[in-house]
Amino acid sequence: MNPLTSFILFAFAFGLLVKIPTPEYSSPYSAVLIVGILFWNFFSASLNSVSGSLINNIGLIKKVYFPRVVFGLARVFVAVIDLLFALIFFIPVLWYLDVTIHFSRLVVYLPFCILTTLLFAWGMGAIIAILKVKYKDFGHVVPLVMQILFYASPIVYTLSIVPEKYMYLYKMNPF
User: Fold this and answer.
1) What is the rounded distance in angstroms from the CA atom of residue 54 to the CA atom of residue 9?
2) Strand spans (E) along 11-141
3) Using one digit for the tens of pLDDT, what is the confidence trace for 51-70?
4) By the 8 A CB rule, do 160 and 22 touch?
5) Distance, first Cα to last Cα, the chain
6) Which residues contact 12 (CB under 8 A, 6 or more apart)?
């Protein structure tokens, strides 16, 4: 599902129908949702492409010796380009939602956010790539786990709706 479709779907379902409160943010729920979906799609695309990089290039790996890391890095940088194009198209949407964008903060924090997401996805994708080579059926589990992690991550819900008894799980979530 592309970011625009998922944004419209989640904004309608969780923003209009469920009316999730966002008192901890100074922006509307749909703005928080759009940024979360953009970075989740970046993470998911990076992890999925890196995790399939060894299996997809097995013919080349058997012919010539060179660092296997190159396949994963090339795939991740394709996802970075996709993210940058998505940001170019979604910044006007954020303006439409009356979100104040501080470009000085954007220039400082965006590369850090992209880099940490990239490194985490690349590391996890490399581990999954090794598991996919060893266990062929492991590739069928990854999309299911990614879907579970999407709903477990605080993208479609906010801190204000988490019950106090589950707050420790919220704080342990790396996403």
Assistant:
1) 34
2) none
3) 888 777 777 777 777 777 77
4) yes
5) 20
6) none
